[in-house]
Amino acid sequence: TNEIDLVVVGPEIPLCNGVVDALQSAGVLAYGPDEAGARLEGSKAFTKNFLAKYEIPTAGYENFKEIEPALYHLSQCSMPIVIKASGLAAGKGVLICQNQKDAEAAVKDMLSGDSFGESGKEIVIEEFLEGEETSLHLICSGESFLALPMSQDHKKVGEGDTGLNTGGMGAYAPTRLVDDDMLDEYLDCIVRPTLAGLKREGVNFRGTLYIGLMLTDQGAKVLEFNVRFGDPETQVILPLLEEDLVSLLLLSARGEVLPEKISFKKSIAMVVVLASLGYPESYPKGEILSLPNELPKGSEIIHAGTAQNEEGEIISNGGRVLCSLGVAQTLEAARSLAYALCEKIDFQSKYFRRDIGHRELSRQ
User: Fold this and answer.
1) Which three-class secondary structure state does DSSP give residue 94?
2) Is-contact 90 18, C-beta < 8 A?
3) pLDDT tens digits, one per residue of 9-60
């Protein structure tokens, strides 16, 4: 009816359910991996086996579908330990357990289906890695790819990187944590082997490949893959892009070779997530949002979990409600813009971390 020329698939569930395959069968160009490629996000167990097979650096691990073998394996592990639901869990299926008791409880809850339903019926028990996290987004077209500016997300809900894991409480890009030589190494040791391995598995990967990395004393190791533009990192990467995004996505959707280099602004972007207090567990919805009429230059409000009520008012409708973006020449200036905007936005359960970028600022 609408004669759509290009579909850019945002969420992971339709990708894992094969929406790109269906669109391609209908003759509609779609940006994103097919169902086979989307398994990199849809199954953490599959991904860990893939990484091991192609000798791509990652944490030591074992996969389990039954409680007793998993508990026995735990008894041989040192703490802390990471326990992951293998399936999709909206960014919340990763638990870092500090002691044996909590780890055993997590295993039982997941494998019984109590905590993550079908997504937790297979789990990954993984070595805990020390270091700093960073994120690498790539636009891919087979083995051709473009690396976007590296960003750093803040997964924990509490300041000082404390509390439960979330889908992300804020991010900034680019990060000085990774220099050009380090990025080249990641491309050689992680990105190219991943895309070549996928090709050998019969997957012509097109779309976004998001690689979550932990920078350890032994080098960078892959924490996870996503197969879409992940937020909040995307919200600080795309404002830095000087090229036409749609042209790049079209090349990928058509399976054509991507340009070797593209241009980015010499700026820094920071985004702060305004969440509903209680996220990532239970939180209220339906609260009326008060938003400023005018935004300072370099600021932007990005809607996430919002809706309109019958009176036309914007209300909260999710755990992460809005994002406050600042783009400037320095991290300090971008941070000031983002936090000044946070103060101008109001709703009853408003909660946000006040230390986004704290690691980068401590390095300066």
Assistant:
1) strand
2) no
3) 999 999 999 999 999 999 999 999 999 999 999 999 999 999 999 999 999 9
CA distances, 279 to each of 86, 187, 301, 344 (Å): 22, 35, 20, 21
Element (H, E) at 276: strand 268-276
Alpha-carbon gap, residue 232 to 326, rounded angstroms: 13
Q: For residue 144, which of 59, 232, 217, 206 has the smallest C-alpha distance? A: 206
Return the exposure string of 166-201: e unless at least 16 CB atoms fall within 10 Å of the residue's CB, then b: bbbbbbbbbbebbeeeebeebeebbbebbbebbeee
Closest-CA residue to 232 (of 156, 177, 152, 159): 152
- Could you give the CA distance from residue 153 to residue 167 in angstroms, rounded to a whole number? 9
Q: Which tokens belong to 75?
A: 């008894």
Is residue 107 helix, strand or coil? helix
Distance, CA of 24 to CA of 334 (rounded, Å)? 40
Helix H or strand E segment including 53: helix 44-53
- Is pTM beyond 0.85? Reply is yes
CA–CA separation, 94 and 61 (whole Å): 14
Cα–Cα distance for residue pair 69/7, rounded to 1 Å: 44
Q: Which two tokens stand for residue 218?
A: 């032994």
